[in-house]
């Protein structure tokens, strides 16, 4: 009887130790799996590509445009609203715009004439104008006088709100005709490449 009881107790001890080892091993595996899952879920997912407000998309398509009388052509963003404003034509999308205005001019523009005549006219017609640099730049269609400034946009037709805009004003001239390309977009928008595409596309056709 004592031998049988001793054997039973020995078996119980062995069984209990085995269960304890199994439980300890299972806890370690579970902890490892949990750690792996946490590491996987904490990995940063790729952020969806988006354009900041006012930025013209990289995949924007441009189309050539010429006035009814001809004389020159320029590429403008496809799909933008088009509106006549006196002798000027304006292509716009939200607060971005390309304004094209031809006019007779007996002499070629200079940095001095733009500073003394053109920019004062801009200051009279726009609000909160802050004049930047005036320089002569080379474009594929010829040289142009470039004036940069900031000004308030025209009020939005729906909300009535205005935004401060960065403006680039290019004056091209040939044989008694000048064409002013005025490019504007909200301050902070990265439109360097789109504006270069537009201004580099300008060509005299006669």
What this model shows, in words?
- The protein has 206 residues and is of the alpha+beta class.
- It is built from 3 helices and 10 strands, in the order H-E-E-E-E-E-H-E-E-E-E-H-E.
- It has helices at residues 2-42, 111-125, 192-201, and strands spanning 62-65, 72-77, 81-85, 88-93, 96-104, 130-139, 142-152, 164-174, 177-186, 203-204.
- A 7-stranded antiparallel beta sheet has the order 3-4-5-9-8-7-6. It has a 3-stranded antiparallel beta sheet with strand order 1-2-10.
- Strand 4 (88-93) and strand 5 form a beta hairpin.
- The radius of gyration is 35 Å and the shape is globular.
- The chain starts with a helix and ends with a strand.
Secondary-structure map with pairings?
Elements: H1 2-42, E1 62-65, E2 72-77, E3 81-85, E4 88-93, E5 96-104, H2 111-125, E6 130-139, E7 142-152, E8 164-174, E9 177-186, H3 192-201, E10 203-204
The unreliable regions are: 1-42
What is the global morphology?
globular
Largest sheet: 7 strands, antiparallel
What is the N-to-C order of secondary-structure elements (H for helix, E for strand)? Answer: HEEEEEHEEEEHE
Query: What is the residue-mean pLDDT, rounded to a whole number?
Result: 82
- Total helical segments: 3
- Class by alpha and beta content: alpha+beta
Give the strand order, joined by hyphens, for the main sheet.
3-4-5-9-8-7-6
Fraction of residues in helices?
A: 25-40%
What amount of the residues lies in strands?
35-45%
Q: Give the termini separation.
A: 123 Å
Radius of gyration, taken over Cα atoms and rounded to an integer in Å: 35 Å
Number of strands: 10
């Amino acid at each position: 009887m004592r031998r049988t009881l001793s054997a039973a107790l020995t078996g119980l001890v062995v069984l209990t130790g085995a269960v304890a080892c199994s439980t300890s091993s299972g806890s370690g595996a579970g902890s490892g799996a949990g750690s792996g899952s946490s590491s996987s879920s904490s990995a940063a997912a790729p952020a969806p590509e988006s354009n900041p407000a006012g930025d013209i998309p990289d995949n924007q398509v441009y189309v050539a445009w010429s006035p009814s009388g001809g004389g020159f052509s320029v590429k403008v963003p496809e799909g933008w609203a088009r509106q006549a404003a006196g002798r000027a034509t304006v292509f716009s999308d939200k607060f971005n715009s390309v304004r094209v205005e031809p006019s007779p001019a007996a002499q070629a523009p200079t940095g001095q004439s733009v500073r003394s005549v053109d920019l004062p006219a801009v200051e009279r017609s726009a609000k909160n104008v802050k004049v930047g640099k005036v320089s002569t730049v080379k474009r594929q269609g010829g040289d142009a006088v470039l004036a940069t400034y900031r000004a308030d946009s025209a009020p939005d037709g729906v909300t009535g709100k205005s935004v401060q805009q960065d403006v680039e004003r290019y004056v091209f001239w040939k044989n008694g005709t000048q064409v002013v390309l005025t490019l504007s977009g909200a301050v902070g928008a990265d439109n360097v490449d789109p504006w270069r595409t537009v201004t580099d596309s300008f060509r005299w056709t006669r």
